[in-house]
Amino acid sequence: MEAVLELSQALVEHSASHVVVIDETGRIRYVNAAWIRFSRENRGPVDDWTNQNYFDVCQRSIDSGDTSAALALHGIRAVIEGKCDDFTLEYPCHSPEERRWFLLRAMPLPEVGQGLVALYHDRFMSESELRQAKERLALAADAGQIGIWEYDLETHKLNWDHWMYRIYGLSPGVFDGEKALWLRSLHEDDRSRLETDLARTLSTHQPLDSEFRILRPSGEIRHVLIKAQVSWDRAGFRNHLTGICLDITDLRQAEAQMLEMAFQDPLTGLPNRVLFMDRLRQAIKISQRGRSYGALFYIDLDHFKRVNDTGGHSAGDELLRVIAARLKHDMRDEDTLCRIGGDEFILLTPELSPDHATAAKQASLLAGKINAAVQHPITLARSRVKISGSVGITLIDGGISSAETLLVQADLAMYKAKGKGRNTSHFYDAQLQAEARRRRTLEKGLRAALDCGGQLQIFYQPQVFETMAIVGAEALLRWQHPRLGSIPPQEFIPIAEDCGLIEELGDWVFNQTCAQLAKWSSEHLPVKISVNLSARQFHQSGCLAKMRKSMKTWHVEASSLKLELTESVLLENTEDTLENMKQMQLSGLQLVLDDFGTGYSSLSYLKRLPLSTFKIDRSFVRDILTDANDAAIAQTIPTLADAMGLDVIAEGVETKAQMEMLREMGCHCFQGFLFRPALSAEDFERVLRDPGVLLGEGV
Ligand SMILES: Nc1nc2c(ncn2[C@@H]2O[C@@H]3COP(=O)(O)O[C@H]4[C@@H](O)[C@H](n5cnc6c(=O)[nH]c(N)nc65)O[C@@H]4COP(=O)(O)O[C@H]3[C@H]2O)c(=O)[nH]1
């Protein structure tokens, strides 16, 4: 108890309030430190306050004309006489420098002593301080364009400052503070929400924080934010709702713009991947509820790179915009189209038939429409182009709940469509997943094969003249996978191209071939070897430099090597390609156009290429005896080669009859199973050492 008393004494002593305790005669019994400090500053030093009488102090002030002192004296006496429980008074106590206000509270202290009364004097803000604070507030509100308002809970009238009028686009003459008029200026969709917010604040006295739209008299819509709280009078009755109002239209517009940008492809204006995936997830939910099937289409433009290469990126962009517009034109409102990557689009049609077969038919029809829309010629600023698309389709049946998985399925199906020869569509099936798994295994295996050696080997397929003399061989890569066995190059070369391993693989083949040539040369077995060069390898920077390095390392003459290029290599970056080929030719390497007749190179372009040989593709040779078209094409190649001063060789020759026919057409060099398949280096070496075996067997 004593400790508590000591604590309360200490608190009073060090309080910022000026405290005086008097008895019923007005004699001062106690003053705290704040009172002594204050009276010293204002009344000069008084040695012993406890010998003073507070009533006398008041009387002296009354005598000098201080009316508040009279009120104070009256009130304090009333408390001492028990006429009231306590007494408060606001009174001025002005110094020459400033005007100050104090609050006097007189309270009896029966628990301390009979007739004792405590007088607390607390300072208010000075008027100049008050004015300054008001000015500061007004300045800050002005700078922040903050409207300040007050709603009188008794009269239901609003009191606005000038910023409120500006925000609402009204003038004081038009708006007189009527609540009904104010409510009418709110956007009708937001009105009831705001009224609910207001009612909640008035019933709970929680601060109001509400955002809504207003309609200016000009018809302009603005977004505003209001914050307010209930204020109370001295008697404890709430009297006002006082708050601020901010025009946040610019902020909301910027946010909307950012949101749009975040969900939109800037080139085509289509939704981007983020938005698309969201819609796809919704479509999955719909099909999970068993309502209907949906379909996802993955559309990849075929050879789009050529448009960029020949017409520049602006032509590519223009084409993408046209394709986007065309695809969009054929869509229903509930469909979503998105550009997911450079030349890749995805289309979602969420509500097809609830019957699987019908939904598949609908999706197939739609894919046909997509192919047709893409295929239609496009007029660009400087050219007219024709492009096609490969479309992968997967049905959304609710069984798969991951949007990402569905996207992978459609992507796999799209790759299949490309493999089928492009400009077509393909449905996803489980087999594709197995193929994709195998692809991944092979990709991993190929990396390992390149790293550890032993699995890759080069075979050589003899190339013969009509006299059966061996004129060379084609180097063909073989891969013995440790678990999966022999993997055909048609399977692993495209994988190597896709995963970026082809360059390393090609460099390895070229270097190994040089090593083999060096060995045969040292054993006096001269031969010319053709090495296949994939498009990616051909276009990689430093390709020729690496080949030169290998030739130098193994002391191999460039004249003992030929490079086989496919027409597809030549169609990309035509000017760079030409320059590349010229450099290769200058190095002494001969260039062979492989698979001739399968591409679309124009004759005028072919004429410019530094080629040494045309190779007739085995697809023409296969049916040369039965298909008049193939025979006609095959026939033109030796004629063309002759006119251009080039050599010609036919590949895939399997029968004597084919060879005879080719010979009649003017082709005198052959490669094919009729002579030998691709042989291991040792077997080919045996053939080289004893060419008679070719004559002896088969031919
Ligand atoms: N049906 C039939 N086929 C015959 C006949 N004669 C030869 N062939 C096959 O035809 C392909 C000729 O090679 P290609 O057109 O350059 O086609 C090659 C080539 O494009 C690619 N390839 C093979 N090795 C390499 C390489 O080291 N680098 C690159 N970039 N591609 C390679 O893989 C393709 C396939 O190679 P292979 O499976 O070895 O298949 C070889 C060969 O075995 C025949 O009489 N009948």
Automatic annotation (TrEMBL):
Q: Name it.
A: PAS domain S-box-containing protein/diguanylate cyclase (GGDEF)-like protein
Looking up PROSITE patterns in the UniProt record yields: EAL, GGDEF, PAC
The segment(s) forming the EAL domain are 439-692
Q: Which organism is it from?
A: Allohahella marinimesophila
InterPro entries per the UniProt record, alphabetical? Biofilm_reg_signaling, EAL_dom, EAL_sf, GGDEF_dom, Nucleotide_cyclase, PAS, PAS-assoc_C, PAS-like_dom_sf
Q: In what residue span(s) does the GGDEF domain sit? A: 292-430
The record ties this protein, via Pfam families, to: EAL, GGDEF, PAS_3, PAS_4
Lineage, top-rank taxon, reads Bacteria
Q: What range(s) does the PAC domain occupy? A: 208-260
Q: Which regions form coiled coils?
A: none
